[in-house]
């Protein structure tokens, strides 16, 4: 009996290790203040008593509830609020304020007025006032774009954490990850208690698309997105262009297929994890997607921007 119990205990422990609550890489919290701003997840910050992050925390609490229900999880994670000066110590890519999710349970968000938001605001100064009305309605007279980069995109990063929790570093395609991130962003925003965050992200993305101020873009194909991912990421504007395309696809997918589609998409990312099945060729991947999701989904995901 004792041996039996011992085996059971060992089995239990080894199972638990796979889905451990403590998947968070705590070495990333060194030098930060543990600010305890939420009872649903962990919060760390470069300041001791930051203001202006209550809304972000509140939205993330609601998003966690929605994702936990949708993905049948109770995920613990940590949110790191990092100011511009300390950004490169905690994030893996500049510019300060561009939200990102690490593979092991941490999300890094900007604090205060971030470099990325202020840069985008500067860009808007060249736009005639008559075209800024709709943005001012949603972002205030001074066009505070941290409401987009921090508050709205935090939901996207949280979606990645629910993915990484199951896939680790295994990425079959960066573009599929990003469609998933956008899908999570749209779905979580639609399920918040008010539509403010959704309206802001929608108005801003549509403004970027319609005003077409991208200038010359070096990368446009999905192959380039895969092969030069970190180069595209560094060129924030080009990365933003790809993200607007993924956003439009995600919005259509969510409006047609709803909450359960998030779960099916995550399961697909888990099933095609290259750590398990190796790299899948484009043709085979497309067939797999048709078999899993059907033609309509694959049609929505068709990439028509190669040239
Ligand atoms: Zn993403």
TrEMBL record:
Lineage top rank: taxon: Bacteria
Protein name, per record: Uncharacterized protein
């Amino acid at each position: 009996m004792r041996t039996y119990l011992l085996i059971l205990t060992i089995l239990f422990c080894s199972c638990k290790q796979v889905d451990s609550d403590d998947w968070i890489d705590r070495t990333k919290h060194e030098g930060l203040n543990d600010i305890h701003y939420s009872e649903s997840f962990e919060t760390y910050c470069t300041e001791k008593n930051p203001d202006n992050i209550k809304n972000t925390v509140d939205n993330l609490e609601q998003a966690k509830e929605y994702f936990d229900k949708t993905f049948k999880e109770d995920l613990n994670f940590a949110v790191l609020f990092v100011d511009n000066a300390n950004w490169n110590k905690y994030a893996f890519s500049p510019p300060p304020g561009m939200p990102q999710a690490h593979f092991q349970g941490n999300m890094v968000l900007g604090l205060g007025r971030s470099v990325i938001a202020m840069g985008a605001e500067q860009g808007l100064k060249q736009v005639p006032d008559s075209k800024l009305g709709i943005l001012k309605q949603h972002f205030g007279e001074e066009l505070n774009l941290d409401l987009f980069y921090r508050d709205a995109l935090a939901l996207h990063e949280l979606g990645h954490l629910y993915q990484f929790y199951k896939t680790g570093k295994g990425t079959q395609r960066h573009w599929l990850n990003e469609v998933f991130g956008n899908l999570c962003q749209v779905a979580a925003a639609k399920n918040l208690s008010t539509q403010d965050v959704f309206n802001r992200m929608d108005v801003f993305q549509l403004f970027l698309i319609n005003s077409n101020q991208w200038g010359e873009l070096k990368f446009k194909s999905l192959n380039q997105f895969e092969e030069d991912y970190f180069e595209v990421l560094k060129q924030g504007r080009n990365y933003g262009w790809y993200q607007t395309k993924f956003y439009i696809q995600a919005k259509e997918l969510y409006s047609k297929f709803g909450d359960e589609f998030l779960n099916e998409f995550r399961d697909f990312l888990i099933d095609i994890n290259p750590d398990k099945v190796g790299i899948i060729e484009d043709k085979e991947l497309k067939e797999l997607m048709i078999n899993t999701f059907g033609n309509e989904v694959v049609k929505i995901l068709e990439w028509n921007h190669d040239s």
